[in-house]
Amino acid sequence: MSVRSGFVFGVRPSLVRIEVRCYGEVAAAVGDHAQTLSLADDATVGDARAALSIATESFSGGLVVLVNGSHAAADAALSDGDTLALSQSPMRE
């Protein structure tokens, strides 16, 4: 094992596994209603959306984002075992 610039080589980074549930137009855009993502242990909701290639601007009215049933912002941290739910906001402009 070697260390360079604060990184330890030969050691796997910690990952969190989250369940993603997509509804309506979001499911159509992602191509699936449910999937599991493995992300870095410091991942946020924004990181998960990026991994799924989901931009808020893609949906008129924006997105409803829930983590474990509670509304969450893009900078909300994710933990191992969390469930991220994404759907188009019913409040269209």
From TrEMBL:
Pfam families for this protein: ThiS
UniProt-listed SUPFAM superfamilies: MoaD/ThiS (SSF54285)
InterPro entries: Beta-grasp_dom_sf, Mopterin_synth/thiamin_S_b, ThiS/MoaD-like
Protein name: MoaD/ThiS family protein
UniProt source species: Haloplanus rubicundus
